[in-house]
Amino acid sequence: LILYTLVSLIVISFSFALLIRITGKSIKKSIKYKNYFSQGISNFFIILIGLLVYNAVYFASYYLAFFIGKFFELEVKSAQLIFISFYFIGLIGIVIFLTYTSFFMVLYKKSVKESLISSIYFVKKNYLQTLSIIIIFFAIYQIFVLLNVPLLAIEIVNALIIVPYFSLILSSMILKNDI
Fold first, then answer.
1. Among residues 44, 84, 91, 129, which one has the fewest Cβ atoms lying within 10 Å of its Cβ?
2. How distant, in Å, are the alpha carbons of 14, 58, 73, 81, 105 from that of 64?
3. Cα–Cα distance for residue pair 148/154, rounded to 1 Å
4. Residue 157 near residue 144, CB atoms below 8 Å
5. Over pLDDT 90: what percentage of the chain?
6. pTM
7. Residue 40 reports pLDDT greater than 90
8. Region of residue 178 (phi > 0: left; psi between -120 and 50: alpha; otherwise: beta)
9. In terms of DSSP H, where are the helices of the chain?
């Protein structure tokens, strides 16, 4: 399970770096598909770290909700709502400020430190807009979870529709502001 998770995160990191590059270039209307592979490799390590932070918030929320649910002998639905609440708080309080780090690295070829600083600054300037986008995508994903849609179906929809669209919107926001 650990090896599967690590391999999945590596593949997702590489794919996300490519996706950011493609969406950024398509917005600028300068698509040239050569060199995408090498650019994906050069950015995927930091994206992997970002995904690890995101997953740490996810699992911390999950286990915190699990232990609270067990302690108070809550039903599954109540514990699930506690999890969603903790997860959401982690997203809007911590992870939101890292939202654009990968985008600044890939689109503007900034260093990790510069990308982190740029992301934090950009979110501070555009907090409500960024929060609105995250809430919409968070709600879409959680609706599938609450409706007990099979996890494989959720992940397919997430990978093929939600994440690419999310990437396009975030790339567009950065490029519109001409940082």
1. 129
2. 30, 10, 14, 12, 33
3. 10
4. yes
5. 12
6. 0.70
7. no
8. left
9. 2-28, 36-71, 76-93, 101-108, 112-125, 127-146, 151-157, 163-176
Retrieve residue 78's tokens: 């109540």
List the structure tokens of 129.
């807009």
Dist. CA 165–CA 23, nearest whole Å: 9
The whole-number pLDDT of residue 117 equals 94
Rounded to whole angstroms, how far apart are CA atoms 100 and 177?
A: 13
What are the structure tokens assigned to 20, written together?
Answer: 């950011």
DSSP secondary structure, 94-119, as one string:
TGGGGTTHHHHHHHH---HHHHHHHH
Structure tokens of 138? Answer: 């968070």
* Across 105-115, average pLDDT: 87
Tokens standing for 32? 């040239």
**What's the CA dihedral at 143, 102, 112, 5 to 10 degrees?**
60
Cα–Cα separations (whole angstroms), residue 178 to 27, 61, 172, 175: 12, 35, 10, 5
Q: Is the pLDDT reported for residue 33 higher than 60?
A: no
